[in-house]
Amino acid sequence: MIYRKYLKRALDIICSGLALLILSPVFLIIALAIKLDTKGPVIFTQKRVGKDKEPFKIYKFRTMLTLEDSFYNDGTPIENYDRITKVGNLLRKTSMDELPQLINIFLGDMSIVGPRPTLSYQVEKYNANQVKRLEVKPGLTGHAQVSGRNSLSWDEKIQCDIDYVDRITFLRDVKIILKTVLVVLKTEKVEFTKPDEISKHSGDVRKDI
């Protein structure tokens, strides 16, 4: 309980702050690569749902063409996954597109370990049990990400998150972080392979995801 209530946040501040300092040259290199590859901003922002359903702005390196550049010469819109840039594809394979979320962690929007931040249209579909995943801050990585990642359906991911929320310990967080390193080194595919009712979007999905 002491770790969950006090120490977890303290470690988030210390670790994210140090990581931002150490990785600043990497941030610069990635920023230059994105700018040289395609037109548009370096950082992509999007509204996500955090702890207790509080909205916040998440930061990621842009990995897709901007909406303005997402059309073929005949005016036909480019499909989402065809909008992924060359640099963006590499960033996604290595999960380096998520690095700017260290800023979210330092600011207190997120934690190093926790359920991945979700979109509002998905939260609206949660039942009384699934909403439990919002009892803690979303994480840069989490139990679901090291238990199958995108091979899991949203129902399966959420159940992993609920299991994590019920049993948060320092040793478990360390274990998830170490497993995350192994997952990233495998450079798994980013495509979501098991869509379901929670992940389905009824509106326009032509945006950076």
Task: Please provide a written account of the structure.
This protein has 209 residues and is mostly helical. Helix content is 40%, strand content 10%. The chain has one domain (2-185). A two-stranded antiparallel ribbon has the order 1-2. It has a two-stranded parallel sheet with strand order 3-4. β3 (111-113), α5 and β4 form a beta-alpha-beta unit. α1 packs across α4 (101-107). The longest helix is centred in the first third of the chain and has 21 residues, at 2-22. It starts with a helix and ends in a 24-residue tail after the last helix.
Shape, principal axes of CA atoms? globular
Tally the structural domains.
1
Rg, nearest Å: 17 Å
Unreliable spans: none
| Strand segment count | 4
Biggest β-sheet strands, sense, barrel: 2 strands, antiparallel
Query: If helices are DSSP runs of H or I spanning 4 or more residues, what is the number of helices?
Result: 7
Summary tags:
7 helices; 4 strands; 209 residues; mainly alpha
A few lines on this structure:
The protein has seven helices and four strands. With 209 residues, it is mostly helical.
What is the secondary structure topology, with strand pairs?
Layout lengths: L1 H21 L1 H14 L5 E7 L5 E7 L24 H9 L6 H7 L3 E3 L6 H4 L15 E3 L12 H13 L3 H16 L24
Parallel strand pairs: 3-4
Antiparallel strand pairs: 1-2
Helix pairs in contact: 1-4
